[in-house]
Amino acid sequence: MSTPDDLHLPDFALQGLGTRPFGVYVHVPFCATRCGYCDFNTYTAGELGSGAAPEDWLEGLRKELDLAAQRLGRPPAADTVFVGGGTPSLLGADGLAAVLDAVRQSFGLAADAEVTTESNPESTSPELFAGIRDAGYTRVSLGMQSAAPHVLRVLDRTHTPGRPVAAAAEARAAGFDHVNLDLIYGTPGERTEDLQASLDAVLEAGVDHVSAYALIVEDGTALARRVRKGEIPMPDDDVLAADYELLDAMLEKAGLRWYEVSNWAASEQARCRHNLGYWLGGDWWGAGPGAHSHVGGVRWWNVKHPARYTATLADAALPVGGQESLTAEDRQLERVMLELRLADGLPLDALDDDGAREARRAAADGLLSTRDLDGGRAVLTDRGRLLADAVVRRLVS
């Protein structure tokens, strides 16, 4: 385990920096309330007390980004910036503008940089969208999860069902061409008609990107405690599969096509370039409490608590909580695991002989496209998408 500021980036990691996609992720750890299913590194005001304020976090962020640029030597301008959390929209337009200014001053932005912020619909407004658009943000991702009030109650979501659609319209009116809505499917008590209504609302919003994730019951969450007590059942795998097929069919019919197992876009321009950087083995600096980074096969992560994060940076030290150098085997596993989830698939020559043979068997089982395999790529079929993790295990075993 590392101690603060003992980050070591060997020459092999820095070689090629700038030839691969380079992004900056900023983690905003603040939330108004804690959702029952969430295990992210987030804190409410009551949990933090006076130990860490947004102003302290922002000052720490500026220091981390400056130290990051120094540590990387001559870093490339950021191709993408993604401000996530937590609830970044709690910072308001001025706070989000300050975050982007800090990235711009430390790294610079590519001329065509994609700049995304996540937002909770309840903490957005036309004024916020106008302000962040003027500041240089190009993309907004809104947490919707569901349009059904009883599903939102199970998830402990606080927004009103119609607010995400209204927020999406406000973002588009402010000049955002690229707006995403997030859905969660498979929540106990969610009926087929509930999911259909949620999808109808998404399509009514006119967004050009949708992310949809199966509900996962994470250890340590309020949702996990309710499941353990028998108050609600675990999500059912058969229901999850049927839900996925329904949402894929409805989104495809509306012109949003999958480009990653859990993501659909109306065009190539609407795809999230920042996340594609993750999936295609790019480099990124993750700034903020608990944020993870990767450069040239070296991965590290920051200390989690905002108070420790800011205190470490006050001493002019990077807040590194740990790091690891990925082995060739690690990088191969991650490449297969991530690229196979993409609609473009994985080059067949990225697999060893055993993996290529297993790919042909997977195609015979209807999990990989035979036509694409003949063209030199391993691409999941519709059935394969439902069993993506199992297909990965077959190809790297």
From TrEMBL:
<comment type="similarity">
    <text>Belongs to the anaerobic coproporphyrinogen-III oxidase family. HemW subfamily.</text>
</comment>
<keyword id="KW-0411">Iron-sulfur</keyword>
<keyword id="KW-0408">Iron</keyword>
<keyword id="KW-0560">Oxidoreductase</keyword>
<dbReference type="GO" id="GO:0004109">
    <property type="term" value="F:coproporphyrinogen oxidase activity"/>
</dbReference>
<dbReference type="GO" id="GO:0046872">
    <property type="term" value="F:metal ion binding"/>
</dbReference>
<dbReference type="InterPro" id="IPR006638">
    <property type="entry name" value="Elp3/MiaA/NifB-like_rSAM"/>
</dbReference>
<keyword id="KW-0949">S-adenosyl-L-methionine</keyword>
<dbReference type="GO" id="GO:0005737">
    <property type="term" value="C:cytoplasm"/>
</dbReference>
<keyword id="KW-0963">Cytoplasm</keyword>
<dbReference type="GO" id="GO:0006779">
    <property type="term" value="P:porphyrin-containing compound biosynthetic process"/>
</dbReference>
<keyword id="KW-0143">Chaperone</keyword>
<dbReference type="InterPro" id="IPR013785">
    <property type="entry name" value="Aldolase_TIM"/>
</dbReference>
<dbReference type="GO" id="GO:0051539">
    <property type="term" value="F:4 iron, 4 sulfur cluster binding"/>
</dbReference>
<dbReference type="InterPro" id="IPR058240">
    <property type="entry name" value="rSAM_sf"/>
</dbReference>
<dbReference type="InterPro" id="IPR004559">
    <property type="entry name" value="HemW-like"/>
</dbReference>
<keyword id="KW-0479">Metal-binding</keyword>
<feature type="domain" description="Radical SAM core">
    <location>
        <begin position="16"/>
        <end position="257"/>
    </location>
</feature>
<dbReference type="Pfam" id="PF04055">
    <property type="entry name" value="Radical_SAM"/>
</dbReference>
<protein>
    <recommendedName>
        <fullName>Heme chaperone HemW</fullName>
    </recommendedName>
</protein>
<keyword id="KW-0349">Heme</keyword>
<comment type="function">
    <text>Probably acts as a heme chaperone, transferring heme to an unknown acceptor. Binds one molecule of heme per monomer, possibly covalently. Binds 1 [4Fe-4S] cluster. The cluster is coordinated with 3 cysteines and an exchangeable S-adenosyl-L-methionine.</text>
</comment>
<dbReference type="InterPro" id="IPR007197">
    <property type="entry name" value="rSAM"/>
</dbReference>
<dbReference type="InterPro" id="IPR034505">
    <property type="entry name" value="Coproporphyrinogen-III_oxidase"/>
</dbReference>
<keyword id="KW-0004">4Fe-4S</keyword>
